[in-house]
Amino acid sequence: MHLLRTLCEIAAPSGHEAPLTEFLLHYIQQHAPGWRVQPQVLAGDDLQDCIILVFGQPRTAVFAHIDSIGFTVRYGRQLVRIGGPDVQTGYRLVGRDALGSIECTLTVDEQTGALGYEFNRDIERGTELTFQCDFRETAEAVQSCYLDNRLGVWTALRLCETLEHGIVAFSCWEEHGGGSVKYLAKRIYEQYGVRQALVCDITWVTEGVHAGQGCVISLRDSLIPRRSYVERIRRIAEASGIPYQLEVEGSGGSDGKELQHGAQPWDWCFVGAPEDHVHTPDELVYKADIDSMLRLYQVLMQEL
Amino acid sequence: MHLLRTLCEIAAPSGHEAPLTEFLLHYIQQHAPGWRVQPQVLAGDDLQDCIILVFGQPRTAVFAHIDSIGFTVRYGRQLVRIGGPDVQTGYRLVGRDALGSIECTLTVDEQTGALGYEFNRDIERGTELTFQCDFRETAEAVQSCYLDNRLGVWTALRLCETLEHGIVAFSCWEEHGGGSVKYLAKRIYEQYGVRQALVCDITWVTEGVHAGQGCVISLRDSLIPRRSYVERIRRIAEASGIPYQLEVEGSGGSDGKELQHGAQPWDWCFVGAPEDHVHTPDELVYKADIDSMLRLYQVLMQEL
Amino acid sequence: MHLLRTLCEIAAPSGHEAPLTEFLLHYIQQHAPGWRVQPQVLAGDDLQDCIILVFGQPRTAVFAHIDSIGFTVRYGRQLVRIGGPDVQTGYRLVGRDALGSIECTLTVDEQTGALGYEFNRDIERGTELTFQCDFRETAEAVQSCYLDNRLGVWTALRLCETLEHGIVAFSCWEEHGGGSVKYLAKRIYEQYGVRQALVCDITWVTEGVHAGQGCVISLRDSLIPRRSYVERIRRIAEASGIPYQLEVEGSGGSDGKELQHGAQPWDWCFVGAPEDHVHTPDELVYKADIDSMLRLYQVLMQEL
């Protein structure tokens, strides 16, 4: 879990993913020689801070978003949300501005809900703050901020080790309105003819989805993927013997949203471990579900 | 109205349009030989469950969505909406899961508004339920679930009988967030140079739009189509002598939304009969308005 | 400011931008011969009512929307909003229908908030009404309806006088759901390889943005542009010595929204003067901020 910890510790809120992109490009350069198949690596300004890895003759693409939720410093000592972080007075936030590194405390006005910070000085307008990472590991689970979606990124990187045919795409802005999957989807479809997607992301423990009972295959959230594709995924999962759970929600979204709304006929399905304490500094995922997630991805990328 | 009844009876909620697609492909194969012009039929995985028919040298495309509203079974005996169905305790719902066919009753919790079902067994998670079809016809009107938009589909099919130049596109997911018109619009524009659209769908009887007074030409809903195009349509309708009504709304949407937001310069206009009891099992449309709708489409496809 | 006044006086609500398009094409034809570089002028049905001007070897595109907010006449004497105009009983509205030109008064129902009009006759269904223009100028400021965004259009036109390399795009529908920037962005990216954008529009005076203290560079609104691009703009502005202010908001949007959500990897940043009395007939902008805006655009288009 050393890699996962490192991923969780890198600050990369939506719009400022570059530090994690840099880490990933370095990691890929170092580790790809040990992978079963050497991928083609697409990156650079035409992909902004995204990365596409192409293995063999791809039929399916995995999308894992690298950005996280956080806060932007506004005027006075006000904060504005990046994505939908949980807020509680006392959460520890970190960042950096022209005056140096920052460790401060989130404040939530009890009356108005207005967000602010406590620190020994004013922070520069526009500075991004993210949760301070307190990575915890037991025999049973991992707990940290940003398991959503550094655990998806981790799964995608581990998948790369044995992947023979497929695409792994690291996307941006998922937590805050999207904005990269549209062009990733276009490029992948036009250049490689791929239109099958798996959204490699973290979902919620709910009354119908339980921690420790396996990776989630989502039948729907706020959007409804094409039934015939989701059914194929269910059948592969069923035949594999790997534990999994089915999710049915009326709300929530993912990179699947941009695939659904893009100008290519993508089939997509959300497949990911469930977490508790969503969007807090204490996101918790069971190791059994991480294991199930990785194994499911390995099988799906072979069979789809 | 036998064809309309058959269309209304086929369950095809958003995301699971395949059964209606199959019916349409079969219908087209059977009936196209009797049509004035033989269309090119585009279908298959690159169009997911959509169909495009190309007649002659097209200048204008008709979009008719084939999906319907409905419900997805969640956990316990909960239901989640597909699109925006009206809900009342007692509505009859039908579906099918691994244990067989289902006829159950919708329940709406009076306190919380939570949706559920009453049935003699639990229904499999993720199963789709749709309104049970009770098709009624009088001398004056037809009444059924899903006239929105099986009546649009019916009009499009009847239009095909005499169409010389034009495109008829059957789209998916309109009732639930969209997701097919973006690629239909791209393909039609790039392959055929067509950028004029008519949205062949059903609208509402309101204080300004009355049942039996003719097909509606919508000047705007939540979006505003380009004025100059809508004016051309008004002038053609006016000159034709066919009864029509003008609609002006501040809310509501259609496949026009995806045309408006796509990356091609589509001009679009919603043209369709008004219905009462919208999104209930008892949608009602006057035959005079159906007649006006079909005749208006015939004229518009010639003149535009 | 004669040109600005003329721009403010032309009615061109979202969806009916054609009158302003016509004015601009005429203006460009007349004045381009006096500009430093002769641009290529792209217009016509494939761009609907938009215009693209291409100067030299472009690296950056300026987007200025030409549409305005307003009202559509519904049924009876009801009005529906175009975009988000401020509403107060007594605002003077103008328009034209088949019976002739219209000068009427906005009414807002105190109980329901319902919008209507007072006039000596009924107005034709679907007629657009816009604020009556009362253009005021002092030594310090200009005040009028529709400075948002006729001042952006004015700035873009003045920028054209000296622009050597770059694109100026006049867009439509910005105030009401968008719909043109997607195809403008696609065409500009595919045809000219340009993926850097400046959104030339007007923003708000707030607790952190003050009238008269310089053009605004927005670090974020409801969406978050890519950090590295915004930082480059800040550095160029800083080095230029031109007064500017930084904005950080959690809401609001612009043409940047469509750039962010399109299928090309656009970097974008909102750069524009702040105004008071937003979306009223009395929008007010300081001349110092107009001056700062134009100079900042001149520098940015050279340096980016």
TrEMBL record, chains A, B, C:
Signal sequence annotation: none
Source taxon at top rank: Bacteria
GO biological process: proteolysis
Gene3D superfamilies, A to Z: Peptidase M42, domain 2 (2.40.30.40), Zn peptidases (3.40.630.10)
Pfam families: Peptidase_M42 (PF05343)
GO MF entry, a single one: aminopeptidase activity
The keyword Transferase appears for this protein: no
Assigned keywords, A-Z: Aminopeptidase, Hydrolase, Metal-binding, Protease
Record-stated family: Belongs to the peptidase M42 family.
Protein name (database record): Aminopeptidase
Source species of the chain: Hymenobacter gummosus
